[in-house]
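Here is a typical protein record:
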Amino acid sequence: MLKSVFRFVLLFVATAIISAAAASCAYIITKNSLSEKTGSATQDAPLATDSVYASTREEVPPAMKFDSYTVRLEDSSICVYAVCNQTEEFLYSTHVYRPNLSTEDISLLTAGVTLNTASELTGFMENYTS
């Protein structure tokens, strides 16, 4: 009995040591890989902070300002259009299961819904995609 307990403890300790060694290797490899990508000269730089990546970030152009958004039901997809200077530009569509929509929703979406801000659009689309 004592012999089997000793084997179990020895196996557990050996597994823990091997796991710790593998985790340390993965940490060092990841840290070195990130240091190379960010051009950091020191090996002891933090892994995931804004200061590490600030120098490598590309300038993101400011978001395009649209006058409004129009959402319409076309076949079994809800299509989103951006309106700028009274011109609609297709942005994206998402599939919906039409039998799950009420008659009111179908008539409302078929006619088109105008939303003024991106946050209104996001909230509106969450009602149909979640």
